[in-house]
Amino acid sequence: MHASDQTLNGSEIFIESLRRENVEYIFGYPGGSLLKVYETLYDVHDIQHILVRHEQGATHMAEGYARATGKPGVVLVTSGPGATNTVTGIANAYMDSSPMVVFTGQVPSSLIGNDAFQEADIVGITRPITKHNFLVKDVKELAATISKAFYLATTGRPGPVLVDMPKDILNASCIFEWPETVEIRGFKPTIKCHINQVEKAAQKIAASKRPLLYIGGGVISAEASEELQKLAIQQNIPVTMTLQGLGSFPGNHPLSMGMLGMHGTYWANQAVNKCDLLIAVGARFDDRVTGKVETFAPQAFKIHNDIDPTNVDKNVKVDLPVVGDAKNFLAGLLEMMPIETESRESWLAEIKVWRELCPLTYSNGDDALRTEFVIEEVSKQTNGNAVVVTDVGQHQMWTSQFYTFLNPRSIITSGGLGTMGYGLPAAIGAAFGIKDRPVVLFCGDGGFMMNIQELVTAVHHNIPIKIFLINNSFLGMVRQWQELFHKEKYSFTDLGESNPDFVKVAEAFGCRALKAENPDSAKAAIEEALAWNDGPILVDFRVVKKDMVFPMVPAGGSISDMLLARLNPKTMV
Amino acid sequence: MKHLISVLVENKFGSLNRVAAMFSARGFNLESISIGETEDKEISRMTIVTRGDDQIISQVLKQLNRLVDTIKVIDLTRQPHVERELLLMTLKLTKTQQHEIFELINVFKGKVVDIKQKSITIEVIGSPDKINTTIDIFRPYGIKELARSGAVAIHRGE
Ligand SMILES: Cc1ncc(C[n+]2csc(CCOP(=O)(O)OP(=O)(O)O)c2C)c(N)n1
Known about the structure:
The complex is a heterodimer. Chain A is of the alpha/beta class. Chain A has 3 domains: 2-178, Thiamin diphosphate (ThDP)-binding fold, Pyr/PP domains (Rossmann fold, 3-Layer(aba) Sandwich), CATH 3.40.50; 195-357, 3-Layer(aba) Sandwich (Rossmann fold), CATH 3.40.50; 371-550, 3-Layer(aba) Sandwich (Rossmann fold), CATH 3.40.50. Chain A contains 23 helices and 20 strands. Chain A has a 6-stranded parallel β-sheet, sandwiched between helices. In chain A, β12, α13 (287-290) and β13 (301-306) form a beta-alpha-beta unit. Chain A is globular and about 70 Å long. Chain B is α+β, with helices and mostly antiparallel strands. Chain B has 2 domains: 2-75, Alpha-Beta Plaits (2-Layer Sandwich), CATH 3.30.70.260; 82-155, Alpha-Beta Plaits. In chain B, strands 5, 6, 7, 8 and 9 form a 5-stranded antiparallel β-sheet that branches. In chain B, strands 2-3-1-4 form a 4-stranded antiparallel β-sheet, covered by helices on one side. In chain B, a hairpin with a 5-residue loop joins β2 and β3 (43-51). The two termini of chain B are 27 Å apart. Chain A binds chain B through residues 123-124, 127-128, 131-132, 135, 152, 184-187, 308-310, 312-314, 317, and chain B through 9-10, 13-14, 17-18, 21-22, 25, 55, 58-59, 62-63, 65-71. The structure holds thiamine diphosphate. Thiamine diphosphate (TPP) binds at residues 391-395, 418-421, 444-447, 470, 472, 474-478 of chain A.
């Protein structure tokens, strides 16, 4: 089937096009509109179809795969409910700029608009949450549309693209022609930064006494960590990262400041407050990072490099915009900047004082099991070398604080949308892509239930993910806000009575499972889980119920409003 | 401040929807939008009237550019341009007012496009300001129905 100019039906064209795009995995679920594609897939062996158990799972798996490997994730679902089930995952990939191509079956062209069985206007529904989407109207356009979809998903700022394929198109035939190049006249992202802007940035950096690099996920998707590390170390510039930027700079390096923002470190936020130059690269001044924008980096000249011009001046007015790829920007700076620079000793000393004043700590020494301990222990035992996936909530923030990320593409987490239920499927997807590093998942007991069905997928494919279930019997993060800001009215956040026995649940799925209730058994369980490679393993960590994530900048507050510890000790466990 | 933006888009199913949906999703003001084919059948021109301060308008322009179906985005506001709108309006026609109405139509360089015993339909072309004035002036005579096209605009030739 590799020769061009041969007649194929739409389903064969679909598969052949995926081959041309070097697709390894399709995360999918069949249905009426896709019967022809699945008929074709039956005899396809060079592309592996992974049967998920819910279409949302397919989207997060595809995204986990994409974030771990840098390659676009591919999803295939049927029309109507299959398509609508992908909406959360598409929105998630859109918010976090993950490359993904979603193929949906659609009712036959002649029935579109008739409220046909399993019809949903998925192109209309996903318009605001995709980078672009297509309805294929002619089988002759199918191959070209697929090639455009992959090009759009992976070029410039990555993102999800959806291709809606009516049933009749998948059955119709035409000569297969794969376009050699893609040309979309309305899509010309700026990759190369304007040289004058880079030069100005270099001058500003050279003149700065208190510079700070503020790094986002853009540096990771641009594969620019090496340039970042060189620049920061050569120029003695401390580096703070967003949740998605973690790993772009090694967390154990003295210049690493950890994460900034709502649950960022005290010293990173202080540095933002006091820096005279803020160099934002591949970050978008999200409200969870800035808090009150008026008081964000008030003394700083702000440089902002981003590949998406709409990110510039969106939330925070910057002084020097540099539109373009992060790698191009950082490499440009490296070329221009002198190697001999200031040691910036007094600035680094100032930061050191803040760091010693309010380090990240947690209570220990008793027999109670705390999430921070679990995460720190996993960090130690994996030497910071794991691919770490999280769900959403307190455990996610603690992961950012207590796992020491050393390499890019090491944290896979739902940042922009904050989707509970993301973690388990994303971890499975990551493990399909990465075989030479352990894939560990930190997941809350709330979020685990949201896509628990995918445990079957992991078991079936013998995927050796380590599921570290942080079981605090609460919707912890919401409980935290209730305690701090809502009169301690723990409204519908106590799961204690209703939670199942997760060990039994996992075992029923065919997944090995352990339980840990104190620091010693936790340590042993982590060791055991990391040594186990015959399929997934779950550890049910029974952690304290009412722990709190600190520091915390209340939503919309200034960094000076940062809460460092619980005010009311009686609510302690 | 009011801005007049001209957008060339792919003449494709859904292009208008993408633009309109972007305005509502991002909470931008959309005063009018009009669309039609250009000299190139594959390209349509949209004329958009919106309001906002410089920061908002700069976001509007960038967000428009970001849409894959948009080929070119031009803020005509600060450039030499011609802007026109079409008004179609049906007025009550009474013996006593008939004379005045015809005079006003002349003043506004309007055209009668339909006339019945008790009503008259006219068309007026002009800048949106002129259209506003026209409507104000005719209102006392009894407007039965009116339709405005929204602005269309183009660069002034060299
Ligand atoms: C799909 C979805 N629904 C609701 C929320 C709101 N929410 C954010 S964190 C959270 C609690 C998560 O609890 P759990 O999974 O147990 O994790 P923990 O915070 O305890 O670590 C909730 C309900 C969300 N982020 N996503």
